[in-house]
Write a structure and sequence with these properties.
It comes from Sinocyclocheilus rhinocerous. This protein is an alpha/beta fold and 370 residues long. It is built from eleven helices and eight strands. The strands form two sheets. Strands 2-7-8-6-5-4 form a six-stranded mixed beta sheet, with helices on both faces. A two-stranded antiparallel sheet has the order 1-3. It is globular and about 65 Å long.
């Protein structure tokens, strides 16, 4: 018989503080109980470990100067990405900011394609021309480099969902640093007026670019920022809390009630980007405390072991397989050739250009003068 675990997620107001879900303009929130099967637990564990190892490998390659340019890592926030994806469908749509490697993976990209994109190789998911911030898959509209700019784009995708009538929605992700952008409030207004099926999600990892949320925002209740839009504040380190809250939000959107806002309280272990050491505005002790008490992977692992849903050996086997996958991908990403110069003007359009694009004539042969 399949092993099934009932977890008390404590996702309603007034319950345990770590898993508490605060509500804004909602009479009720996600359910008190969440079901976790053995198969789901193992799948979540594998995906989160893959994300963690992939980001740590990216850190290593960046320090070796094999990855260049901007590189924003997601380690520490894995429960957000995996929990969100467990609460929606792959036919739904998702758009995020530049911390995008993990979502590229959950949306169907492979570790090999992601690593090769980071190193600018031909086998990358954007043919080696997008880099860390610009990766795309079906129904995933990428990481976006302009702070907050993905939010109005996501509302546009949600408008298309409503217009086409396919009962799909768009998950629109942004960070606490972007939450103060004016374009986000304009988007709230439009999405509410038109009742767009859009889940606005603020991944609040406590720090923007070099500063804490308390120093950057007069109000850190990001789940209330939609004002007239209902909101939830969720423990973003607990994958089951994120999953159940996302299911609740998705049902809200699909029932025609319009947009909903979620704040996921999470934490990033690295700095804002690889150029930020991440310890000038917070202490190493703080980071270590989060790692020891609230790590999303460790919490899922402990939960599964304590309920006899998996053995230590079984999870170690997954760890070994994940490490091998990452090493194989890194090997590919450092040996695959870079895209040829002739490719520079290609891939601007999804298919053949409907018209001539100024300065990008695909028949023009380009020459390197370096």
């Amino acid at each position: 018989m399949r092993k099934m675990l009932t977890i008390i997620s404590n996702v309603l107001r007034g319950s345990a503080s770590r898993n508490k879900c605060d509500l804004h303009k909602l009479e009720e929130g996600p359910p008190l109980q969440a079901m976790l099967s053995r198969e789901e637990g193992l799948q979540y564990y594998r995906t989160m470990q893959t994300m963690r190892r992939m980001e740590l490998k990216a850190d290593q390659l960046y320090k070796q100067k094999i990855i260049r340019g901007f590189c924003h890592l997601y380690d520490g926030q894995e429960a957000c990405a995996v929990g969100i994806e467990a609460g929606i469908n792959l036919s739904d749509h998702l758009i995020t900011a530049y911390r995008a490697h993990a979502y590229t993976l959950t949306r169907g990209g492979t570790v090999r394609e992601i690593m090769a994109e980071l190193t600018g190789r031909r086998g990358g998911i954007a043919k080696g021309k997008g880099g860390s911030m610009h990766m795309y898959t079906k129904n995933f509209y990428g990481g976006n480099g302009i702070v907050g700019a993905q939010v109005p784009l996501g509302a546009g995708v949600a408008l298309a969902c409503k217009y086409l009538g396919k009962n799909e929605l768009c998950v629109c992700l942004y960070g606490d640093g972007a939450a103060n952008q004016g374009q986000i409030f304009e988007t709230y207004n439009m999405a509410s007026l038109w009742k767009l099926p859009c889940i606005f999600i603020c991944e609040n990892n406590k720090y923007g670019m070099g500063t804490s949320v308390e120093r950057a925002a007069a109000s850190t209740d990001y789940y209330k920022r939609g004002d007239f839009i209902p909101g939830l504040r969720v423990d973003g380190m607990d994958i089951l809390c994120v999953r159940e809250a996302t299911k609740f939000a998705a049902e809200h959107c699909r029932s025609g009630k319009g947009p909903i806002l979620m704040e996921l309280q999470t934490y990033r272990y690295h700095g804002h980007s690889m150029s930020d050491p991440g310890v000038s505005y917070r202490t190493r002790e703080e980071i270590q405390e989060v790692r020891s008490k609230s790590d999303p992977i460790s919490m899922l692992k402990d939960r599964m072991l304590s309920n006899n849903m998996a053995s230590v050996e079984e999870l170690k086997e997954i760890d070994v397989e994940v490490r091998k996958e990452i090493e194989d991908a890194a090997q590919f990403a450092t040996t695959d050739p870079e895209p040829p110069l002739d490719d520079l003007c290609n891939h601007i359009f999804y298919n053949n250009p409907p018209m001539e694009v100024r300065g990008t004539n695909p028949w023009t042969k380009l020459k390197s003068v370096s």
